[in-house]
Automatic annotation (TrEMBL):
Taxonomic lineage from the root: Bacteria, Pseudomonadati, Pseudomonadota, Alphaproteobacteria, Rhodobacterales
Catalytic reaction list: ADP-D-ribose + H2O = D-ribose 5-phosphate + AMP + 2 H(+)
Molecular-function annotations in GO: ADP-ribose diphosphatase activity; ADP-sugar diphosphatase activity; metal ion binding
Name of the molecule in the record: ADP-ribose pyrophosphatase
UniProt domain Nudix hydrolase: residue ranges: 219-358
Alphabetized PANTHER family for the sequence: ADP-RIBOSE PYROPHOSPHATASE, UDP/ADP-SUGAR PYROPHOSPHATASE
One cellular component (GO) term of this entry: cytosol
Family designation: Belongs to the Nudix hydrolase family. NudF subfamily.
Cofactor: Mg(2+)
Residues at which Mg(2+) binds: 261, 277, 281, 329
Function statement: Acts on ADP-mannose and ADP-glucose as well as ADP-ribose. Prevents glycogen biosynthesis. The reaction catalyzed by this enzyme is a limiting step of the gluconeogenic process.
Length: 371
């Protein structure tokens, strides 16, 4: 058995319970402090770091009676991010001292930010972190901690999308908790995207429950799509890039013309993603965004939720080649007239659904935008 002191996000008992695979109320957890230390945000990150600080004391939890299995799960969750365990003496509320191990970050990993407060973090990041931990811990024993760390930005992006979906209005004519029965759920594959599989039932229109169905879904996250439009010149900008899913489907034309698009990172709004992607993919600074809608991209296969925009821009001079090398992007841009865009839609030249949708929205609102 071992005792561990938690000073950061694992002080959040729902998260700690997910990592340990147990109910939080069954943990032997006591409030404690680590003298001579303080907890700060890791600058530019969404988690804290602990640093030496004379005269300070880092608040936390001392959790006693952890098993070797518990330590293995904790090491898997923390180990790929540059943490090491050290034994420390912590002070308890009754004035006594106790020994416990602490996950300390390796020196020099992050810059020190502002003081960190658990309640502030939990309000903004608690739900996302808990959902991300569910996916992470589903791969305990299947992937290494280092492999998880490499995929964690995508995991967190999917978690943020799940939390955002939970906040959307419920169907007023359905009680999803009554009308859908989740029998089993599994995270079956994880890389840049994830695949989840479930056995479930849903209430049919005759009032009866369906048979148990096995279904899987590609989990992507939320995306922002923006079609740049210059109302003065009446032209749009499209980008073309190689798309591996199109190639893997057997298509002999995997270079696809599209609007600018990108995945929404945790902490971003879809609007800010659209502005960022316009800069990264096409070197554009958009004057403003016009919301063209939001929808699931393929409800039968994917959980991707797409925010659609037309971006007002000056397209007098644009970069021909764009994209980020760090993301393996090789993107070229082309400016064409509105009439040429609609001809491409009508003749089925364009095969990207968000491009067709934003082009048709632009056709309906073009006069207003030009006015």
């Amino acid at each position: 058995m071992a005792d561990l002191f938690f000073y950061g996000t694992l002080r959040h008992l729902p998260l700690l319970g997910i990592v340990l695979g147990c109910r939080p109320d069954r943990l032997n957890a006591r409030a404690a402090e680590l003298p001579g230390h303080a907890v700060h945000w890791a600058k530019g990150e969404i988690f804290p770091m602990i640093v030496p600080a004379d005269g300070a004391a880092a608040p936390g939890l001392l959790v006693s009676g952890l098993t070797e299995q518990d330590i293995g799960r904790l090491s898997f969750y923390e180990g790929g991010f540059g943490y090491r365990r050290e034994v420390v003496q912590v002070s308890l509320q009754n004035g006594e001292y106790g020994a416990g191990e602490v996950f300390f970050p390796d020196p020099g990993l992050w810059e020190i930010g502002a003081p960190w407060v658990l309640e502030d973090w939990a309000a903004r990041w608690g739900a996302i972190s808990c959902r991300a931990a569910q996916e992470v811990m589903a791969y305990h024993g299947r992937l290494s901690a280092e492999e998880i760390a490499a995929r964690f930005p995508s995991i967190r992006r999917r978690a943020a999308s799940w939390v955002a979906a939970q906040a959307r209005p419920a169907d007023p004519d359905r009680d999803v908790d009554r009308d859908v029965v989740l029998r089993t759920h599994a995270f079956t594959h994880m890389n840049f995207h994830g695949i989840e599989e479930a056995d479930l039932q849903f209430r049919r229109y005759d009032g009866e429950m369906s048979p148990v169905l096995n279904r899987s879904a590609l989990m992507v996250g939320e995306a922002a799509v923006v079609l740049p439009y210059d109302p003065v010149r009446d032209v749009v900008l499209l980008v073309e890039q190689f798309r591996a899913p199109v190639y893997l489907s057997g298509d002999r034309a995997p270079w696809v013309w599209e609007p600018v698009a990108g995945l929404v990172d945790p902490g971003e709004t879809p609007d800010s993603t659209a502005l960022r992607e316009a800069e990264e993919e096409a070197g554009l600074t958009l004057a403003r965004l016009e919301k063209a809608g939001e929808a699931y991209s393929s409800t039968g296969a994917s959980g991707e939720y797409v925010h659609l925009y037309v971006g007002i821009a000056d397209l007098t001079r644009v970069a021909e080649i764009g994209g980020l090398d760090s993301e393996g992007e090789d993107i070229r841009s082309a400016v064409l007239s509105f009439d040429a865009l609609m001809e491409g839609v009508d003749t089925h030249r364009y095969r990207d659904m968000p491009l067709i949708v934003t082009a048709l929205w632009l056709a309906r609102h073009r006069d207003r935008l030009r006015g």
